[in-house]
Every structure is written in C-alpha cells, then in structure tokens.
Amino acid sequence: MASRDLRAEVDFVLLQLLGDLEQLEAKRQALNARVEEGWLSLSKARYAMGAKSVGPLQYASHMEPQVRVGTSESQDGLQKFWMVRAGTQTPEEVGSREAALRRRKGLPRTPEPDSSPAPQNPLKWFGILVPHSLRQAQASFREGLQLAADMASLQSRITWGQSQLQELQEKLKQLEPRAP
Q1: Does residue 59 lie within any of the structural domains?
Q2: Could you tell me the residue range of the domain that residue 72 belongs to?
Q3: Is 113 contained in some domain?
Q4: Alpha-carbon distance 101 to 77, whole Å?
Q5: Helix/strand/coil (H, E, C) string of 15-84?
Q6: CA 145 to chain CA mean position, Å
Q7: Which of 40, 52, 140, 141 is the most buried (most CB within 10 A)?
Q8: How many other CB atoms are there within 10 angstroms of residue 83's CB atom?
Q9: CA dist., res. 26 & res. 37, Å (int)
Q10: Residue 84 domain-assigned?
Q11: In a domain, 111, yes or no
C-alpha cells in the first residue's frame, strides 16, 4: 500500500515538473521574442534619429538602476525571484525606519532627504521628443526583465522538483524487492 501511495506521489511530482518545464520553454520563447523586438525597435530609433544620436555618448555619467531583483526563500528551500521598481520600499526597509527613535520635544527637525530619489527615465538622455520606436524598445526590454525573473523562479522550482523526484525514486527502490 505504501508503494502505491509513493508511486502516486512520484507521478504527481513528475507531472508538476513536466508542467514547469513546459512553462519555462514558453517563457524562453517569449523572452527571445521580447529581446529581438527590443533590438529591432532600437535599430529603428537609431535610423530615425541618426546613428550617432542613440549610442553610448548620450548615456548619463552616473546611472541608477530602475529595477532590482528581489529574492525570497520558502521553508522548503524553494527560491522565488521578482522585479522591484526603484523608489519603492521593501518591507524590511520600512520596518527599520519605524524602529528608530523619534524626537518629540524641542526644535523641529528638518526632514531627511531621501538617499535614493526615484531615478530619471533614461529616455530623457536622448532628448525630449524621442521616437516611438525607442519607447517600444524600452518597454520590450522591461518585459524581458520580468520574464527573466519569472524564468529564474521557474528554474529554481524545476531544480527543487528534480531533487524531490530523485528522493521519491530512492524511497521507492528501497520499498520494492529486487527481482532477479
């Protein structure tokens, strides 16, 4: 009876693993399409504005990231990745500010300036009126970043599923008597 339950669990984990692999392949194809679309839109923008108008010479001297990758690990060791826009606070950052002492009496303090103001839109490096294709390129690459984070989470889940499947198969081998 235990062997039957173990086989059912192996089947469930295997089906889940195959579903995750199918999702990963679909996301890879979508990522490839977004990146290809982004580069094509970027080349259209270079054609519209001139080859020297869209290039490294227009980049800001000091760049700030617009997104970060957030990670978390669940109790079973499964990691999850997601995109966090710059300027938004994570729960850890909010909690640390509230724990600070407050001065209730005396001179009013001047508010502390934010150490990290929201970063400027990089499209403004290329002028005020940028072609629509440049905006499309930016949107395509942003979607690609989100897909990459989703793919990393899926890959982590696939690795976890493979280890679960191997453990279950080892248990199943120990339960079944060896036939000559």
Answers
A1: no
A2: 1-50+68-92+130-180
A3: no
A4: 36
A5: HHHHHHHHHHHHHHHHHHHHHHHHHHHHHHHHHHHCCCCCCHHHCCCCCCCCEEEEEEECCCCCEEEEEE
A6: 6
A7: 140
A8: 16
A9: 16
A10: yes
A11: no
pLDDT tens-digit map of 149-158: 999 999 999 9
Q: Which two tokens stand for residue 140?
A: 């395509």
The angle subtended at Cα 91 by Cα 87 and Cα 96, nearest 5°, is 95
Over the Cα atoms of the chain, what is R_g?
25
Q: How deeply is 72 buried, as exposed, middle or buried, from its count of CB atoms within 10 A (0-12, 13-18, 19+)?
A: exposed
Sign of CA dihedral 27, 29, 31, 33: negative
Q: What is the pTM of this model?
A: 0.73
- When divided into structural domains, the chain yields a total of 1
Extract the tokens encoding 69: 């990758």
**Cα 32 from Cα 135, distance rounded (Å):** 19
CB-CB contact of 87 with 67 (8 Å): no
